[in-house]
Specification:
The complex is a heterodimer of chains A (about 325) and B (about 325).
Chain A (H helix, E strand, L loop, with lengths): L3 E2 L2 E2 L12 E2 L9 H4 L3 H10 E6 L2 E8 L5 E5 H4 L5 E5 L2 E3 L2 E7 L4 E6 L20 E6 L7 E14 L5 E2 L2 E3 L6 E6 L4 H4 L7 E5 L2 E2 L3 H9 L6 E8 L2 E8 L1 E2 H5 L4 H4 L11 E7 L11 E3 L5 E10 L2 E6 H12 L5
Antiparallel strand pairs in A: 4-5, 4-7, 5-6, 6-10, 7-8, 9-10, 11-12, 12-21, 13-20, 14-15, 15-16, 16-17, 16-18, 18-19, 21-24, 22-23, 23-24
Chain B lengths: L8 H4 L22 H20 L1 E6 L2 E7 L5 E4 L1 H4 L5 E5 L5 E10 L4 E6 L21 E6 L11 E10 L4 E3 L11 E4 L4 E8 L6 E5 H6 L1 H5 L3 E2 L13 E2 L2 E5 L5 E6 L4 H4 L7 E5 L2 E2 L3 H9 L6 E8 L2 E8 L1 E2 L1
Parallel strand pairs in B: 5-13
Antiparallel strand pairs in B: 1-2, 1-4, 2-3, 3-6, 4-5, 5-6, 7-8, 7-10, 8-9, 9-12, 10-11, 11-12, 14-21, 15-16, 16-17, 17-18, 17-19, 19-20
The chains are: A alpha+beta (about 325), B alpha+beta (about 325).
Chain lengths: ~325, ~325
């Protein structure tokens, strides 16, 4: 469907209060202090079991503490952009943090800090909770204090297909007889795989590629974060490399009207096998941390802020499987 | 109008039964204080959500997509004026389960962004109650539904929770976060009663505006009759003389007007008018001269309905069509 979604964006500031206006003090609004004070029990869980990941002095993303010994899961694509990494759990700062593994499909990274005696999250028994159920996640933090933001489960659990299919990160020569690369995009899977302009793509996952259209059709249904085996020809030599596929939107920075009114959103916000959707009105950095229920149990991990009205979390069942894989322990 | 059914009486006199659910006590607290307070909000919401969602629809008009809400079993939908796009527009209404129905826009209140739409297909539709007693107050917990970004069957409509943060006569503001595609969708109190229709958002997060239901109730009869109320800015008032039919005619010596030419892809061509047809009456007025037909059309505009009594090869025929845009 290509319908243009309708909503009027007010560009002008709202004028002064007209006579007879009633307005609710900000402390009593959904993101206000007085309301969020009711979520102190869940905030205390975030204090112990979420990590704040800094780039230099600024808060970049959050993480989920999954072991007492310093294993943390976070959003991989955001983590990769951090230049000066440090991690805070509770009121302790860890200057050294290592990236041990990355799950490209779910966009999850396994981060390790030298710690012991941490409090890992307690997993909720199921992510199949009713829509309208309260959920709590990290809000902007201070060095020593976590803050909570609250919202509700707001839509069905579902797959978010890759927007526009998987992309290699190459521009192809138009009207060429073969599928020849004209340019390679920076920070793309193609660049990392060492592809160069002039290389001729001959096969994808062993299947012959004869035309641009054939290649596009093969990539259309592929997920971002998965890997494709690309066979190419350079100087009469054929070679095969693994190329990490990206979401088309990551490469082209496509913006639509809804993005324009959304403030910051996650670059990687599609191509997830399953997500829980909630309405917590957080900053872009809401991603990476745990999504808690009122019992303080982990319902999932925030993985994308899709737009101002829709945030996605990896459901607890999938999160547990990812955590188990990453910790290399049998799944319970 | 053709589609007035007996059960429309409930829509004409919109003072039906009130909802059963009671106003949750937590609304009278400045802020929830504990787990019990939070659960009272959650329980109220989850109890009324399914019914509210069944009545929430997606409205498609040409290239645009918005939302709306069914308020009568026979298919009366409330939405925003900028979603309806004007009066007498052909629309498609999509229910939560994906079923699509033909609809037409009735009246609009152009200066407050209110509109009414009628589904023309016959069916018994799920619908919700309207809040009629103004018992919803500033600070009350409310929820928004809508087809954010357009209809998505796998996702369904999206629910968001918030509070009423500002109220004026023509606008209520909540902190339920809206986005494109939500326009025209419903805002409910925790009793599951409709209190507003989504209209617009501020540039900052947490500023989301709705048309209050009293605006609809005050203009109910005019909306139902398909009147264009107010001057804008949410929808542009159609100007007289901007309608387009697409035929050339000349007076016929036996009375009426003979069609001498039908333009390709015009409203006339789509209604199957052909060269040689004789137009006898337009909306009941006997036609005598070409100039008279032009004068009648000059008083109308795009979207206005036309009904021609005509003759083709001596046989009486009726053509129904809508004026197109010039």
């Amino acid at each position: 469907m290509h319908a243009k979604p309708l909503l009027i964006l007010l560009v002008l500031a709202l004028g002064g209060h007209a006579r007879g206006d009633q307005s609710l003090e900000s402390t009593y609004r959904t993101t206000g202090r007085s309301v969020l004070a009711a979520f102190d029990a869940q905030r205390q869980v975030l204090q112990k079991s979420s990590a704040v990941i800094y780039d230099g002095r600024s808060e970049a993303i959050y993480g989920v503490v999954i072991s007492a010994d310093g294993d943390i899961l976070t959003k991989a694509s955001e983590l990769k952009t951090i230049k000066q990494l440090s991690v805070t759990v509770d009121d302790k700062k860890f200057a050294a943090a290592k990236i041990l593994a990355i799950d490209e499909q779910w966009d999850v990274a396994h981060l390790k800090i030298e710690a012991s005696g941490l409090t890992p999250v307690t997993y909720a028994p199921t992510s199949a909770v009713a829509q309208g159920t309260w959920v709590v996640a990290n809000g902007t933090s201070t060095r020593n204090q976590r803050r909570a933001l609250a919202g509700i489960i707001s839509a069905k659990i579902r797959e978010i297909p890759t927007a526009g299919g998987g992309a290699l990160g190459v521009t192809l020569k138009p009207d060429a007889k073969e599928v020849e690369i004209a340019a390679v995009t920076d920070k793309s899977g193609a660049k990392d795989a060492g592809l160069l302009p002039g290389d001729v793509i001959v096969a994808l996952d062993g299947k012959k590629v004869a035309t641009l259209e054939a290649l596009a059709a093969m990539l259309k249904d592929r997920q971002a974060g998965t890997t494709a085996k690309l066979t190419y020809r350079r100087n009469q030599q054929e070679s095969t490399v693994d190329v990490r596929l990206m979401a088309r939107s990551e490469i082209t920075n496509e913006m639509n009207g809804n993005d324009a009114m959304s403030g910051l959103f996650s670059e990687r916000r599609s191509g997830f096998p399953r997500i829980l959707q909630h309405d917590i009105l957080g900053a872009k950095s809401i991603v990476g941390g745990p999504l808690l229920d009122l019992d303080g149990r982990c319902l999932g991990m925030n993985i994308a802020r899709a737009n101002r009205a829709e945030s996605f979390a990896i459901p607890v069942e999938d999160l547990k499987a990812i955590a188990a894989r990453m910790l290399k322990t049998p799944q319970n | 109008m053709k589609h007035l059914l007996p059960c429309l009486l409930t829509a004409l006199l919109p003072w039906g039964a009130t909802a059963d659910a009671a106003r949750p006590y937590v609304n009278d607290k400045k802020a929830p204080e504990n787990r019990k307070d939070l659960e009272s909000i959650q329980n109220a919401l989850t109890q009324v959500l399914d019914k509210a969602r069944l009545a929430t629809v997606c409205i498609e008009l040409g290239e645009g997509s918005g939302s709306g809400v069914l308020v009568s079993e026979d298919g009366l939908v409330l939405t925003a004026a900028h979603v309806a796009g004007g009066i007498n527009k052909d629309l498609t209404v999509v229910l939560e389960d994906g079923r699509k129905f033909k609809a037409v826009s009735l009246g609009v209140v152009a200066d407050t962004d209110a509109a009414m739409v009628r589904i023309t297909d016959k069916e018994k539709f799920p619908c919700i109650e309207i809040e009629r007693e103004n018992t919803t107050l500033l600070g009350d917990w409310v929820f928004a539904l809508g087809h954010s970004g357009g209809y998505d069957k796998q996702r369904g409509s999206v629910v968001r929770l918030g509070r009423l943060v500002r109220m004026t006569e023509n606008t209520i503001q909540s902190d339920c976060t809206l986005i494109g595609g939500d326009s025209g969708g419903p805002l409910f109190n925790l009793q599951g009663e409709l209190i507003g229709i989504h209209s617009r958002v501020g540039v900052w997060m947490g500023i989301d505006m709705h048309v209050p239901i009293p605006v609809f109730l005050k203009n109910w009869e005019g909306l139902l009759k398909g009147e264009f109320i107010g001057e804008g800015p949410f929808v542009k008032k159609p100007e007289k003389g901007q309608g387009f039919l697409g035929v050339a005619t000349e007076a016929c010596k036996d009375g009426g007007l003979t069609v001498t030419k039908v333009g390709k892809d015009t409203p006339a061509a789509k209604a199957d008018l052909k060269d040689g047809d004789i137009l006898l009456k337009l909306n009941g007025t006997v036609l005598t001269t070409r100039e008279q037909l032009q004068d009648l059309l000059k008083e109308m505009t795009e979207g206005d309905p036309l009904e021609f009594d005509a003759l083709r090869a001596g046989q009486p025929l009726t053509f129904k069509l809508k004026l197109g845009a010039r």
